[in-house]
TrEMBL record:
This is Nucleoid-associated protein. Keywords: Cytoplasm. Belongs to the YejK family. It is found in: Cytoplasm, Nucleoid. The keyword Repressor does not apply.
Length: 339
């Protein structure tokens, strides 16, 4: 990893009614292999976790000063350590009305990457554990819970500075204390949550419309490739870029040129952004229809509908043909045993 700077500070309150206290580091870490492993683990877990919102910094700098401090840091008017100190004091202030107890570390990681610089902030807690020492005596230890954190943020610094995007700030708020999560969002200055589910649904509708212009084989390949590409981008924490997807589709479906899909999107749905963040659930459900209740669970490829599977909405029934051999064998066995 190309880590430029990494520093950690502690914030804690152990008793109700007490004020939140800070323990600020006097210097950033000297980069070494263990720190790179820590940063990599945090980054990987951030990508894997759900609960993400996408937006930008608030323009209300009086209430949300972090972007101003970050700009000074990027311009070297403020050191990375000083920036992180001011950020921690802002978080402490944001927690004034919180009632929860807390003992956690905020880890600030600045990376310089080929695709652009990033700043990530993770709130990580210690976990306790037992171990056997060299004399086989039982001891207790503490370790950073790098997989269990529930609050984090990632800023695409170049996109923010160049105003190339309105979703350069990713906020992760998984389940946890609501008052702590709200304070974290306030301290990060997050605003303008994007409805990525709706954006993905509109995009998939365009894919459907585009597929009707193709023969059956090319249409099936196109839909499958769209799903694979979008899920790969989502897993990597990256956006879907229409131009790149169009080129990728042309490599899979040899019957049309690289710009065909991108041109179709631009012509028929110019309001669709040239790049967007995919909603994984919407993408998966595009090629599979699934559902369950207390006694029934079912999942099948969406292109089976109208062929092997027919749905009658008036009777609310499914008719299934060409059952999977294993399922058919289980059904026959069950019928014989129940007689």
């Amino acid at each position: 990893m190309a880590i430029n700077s990494i520093v950690a500070h502690r914030i804690y309150r152990h008793s109700p009614g007490d004020a939140f206290a800070l323990q600020l580091a006097s210097a950033a870490f000297a980069i070494n292999g263990k720190l790179e492993e820590l940063a990599y683990e945090l980054k990987t877990q951030f990508i894997r976790k759900g609960g993400k919102s996408y937006g930008r910094f608030s323009d209300e700098l009086g209430e949300f000063p972090l972007p101003s401090w970050l700009r000074d840091c990027r311009a070297e008017r403020l050191s990375f350590l000083s920036f992180s100190h001011q950020a921690m004091r802002q978080f402490q202030q944001a927690l004034e009305n919180a009632e929860s107890l807390l003992d956690a570390y905020l880890i600030f990681v600045e990376e310089k990457l080929e695709v652009g610089d990033t700043l990530s902030v993770y709130m990580v807690e210690h976990q306790g554990g037992l171990y056997l020492d060299g004399e086989l005596a039982l001891g207790e230890s503490l370790f950073l819970d790098t997989s269990g954190f529930t609050l984090a943020a990632k800023i695409q610094l170049n996109d923010w500075e160049n105003q190339d995007s309105t979703t350069y700030l990713t906020l992760m708020r998984a389940r946890g204390d609501k008052d702590i999560a709200e304070a974290f969002s306030h301290f990060i200055a997050f605003t303008d949550k994007q409805d990525i589910k709706q954006e993905t649904a509109v995009f998939l509708q365009v894919v459907d419309e585009f597929s009707t212009t193709l023969d059956e084989t090319a249409a099936k390949l196109t839909r499958s490739k769209v799903v694979d590409y979008c899920l790969e981008q989502n897993k990597a924490g990256k956006t879907v870029t229409i131009a790149d997807l169009s080129t990728s589709l042309a490599e899979e479906v040899k019957s049309y040129e690289p710009e065909r899909f991108a041109r179709y999107v631009e012509t028929t749905k110019p309001e669709i952004k040239p790049e967007f963040i995919p909603h994984a659930g919407q993408i998966r459900s595009y090629v599979r229809i699934s559902g369950r209740n207390d006694s029934l669970s079912m999942s099948f490829a969406s292109d089976c509908l109208g062929r092997e599977i027919e749905y009658d909405p008036e009777q609310d029934t499914l008719t299934i043909r060409n059952l999977p051999p294993a399922l058919k064998a289980r059904l026959i066995k069950h019928l014989k045993e129940s007689k």
